[in-house]
Design a protein that fits this description.
Elements: H1 37-52, H2 58-70, H3 74-80, H4 124-135, H5 144-161, H6 166-195
Helix pairs in contact: 1-2, 1-3, 4-5, 4-6, 5-6
């Protein structure tokens, strides 16, 4: 080892990787952890995708495939796929992953779905109008006046509040008016019959 003019040895430079060697991930605490069969299968899936995309030759794929099933630690598996894309990189939602082309950059935020509108309630007077209109048939029209009154009230409330039940109120009104019309016709016929 050569010495500097003042007697100290030259500092040793760290050996640089030869040109053409793929980048190797920095060793971490996880790289010495033992890998499971699932981890090996996941690595082989990345290798299969790279081979299918033409990133690996047949010989290189075969060598890495065998090495993946012989690997014991995460670090050994990471070295096999260090120079291959492994799919979307983990990162914050919406942030571009480092090392990916701009085409794979930030994903657009999903549009939130509109909140469902609460179901409009059915007007109670419309239900009462329908019930009284139907009851006017077996009671020979006695409930007809109530069907007409509650039907008109229901229509006014539906317009004011925006409730459901327009059809119910209309049916109650029709049945109520028919029963009232029947009574009026009966009284008219009875009155003309009494005059004769």
């Amino acid at each position: 080892m050569a010495e500097q003019p003042w007697g100290q040895p030259y500092p040793v430079r760290p050996q640089q990787q030869p040109y053409g060697q793929p980048w190797q991930p920095a060793p971490s605490a996880q790289s010495s952890m033992r890998a499971s069969n699932t981890d090996r299968d996941r690595t082989v899936d990345v290798l299969k995708a790279a081979y299918a995309e033409g990133r690996l030759s047949r010989e290189e794929y075969g060598q890495r495939f065998d090495a993946a099933y012989k690997a014991q630690t995460y670090g050994q598996l990471a070295q096999l796929v260090a120079d291959l894309p492994a799919g979307p990189m983990p990162g914050p939602f919406g942030a571009a992953a480092a090392g990916l082309p701009a085409a794979y950059g930030p994903m657009p935020m999903p549009v939130p779905l509109p909140m469902p509108m609460p179901a409009r309630r059915v007007n109670g007077m419309a239900i009462a109008s329908l019930a009284l209109g139907v009851l006017s048939l077996p009671t020979l029209g006695a409930a007809g006046l109530g069907a007409v009154a509650t039907g008109h009230i229901a229509k006014a409330q539906i317009r004011a509040r925006g409730d459901e039940g327009t059809g119910l109120a209309t049916i109650g009104l029709v049945l109520g008016w028919l029963s009232l019309g029947g009574w009026v016709l009966l009284f008219l016929l009875a009155g003309f019959g009494a005059l004769d």
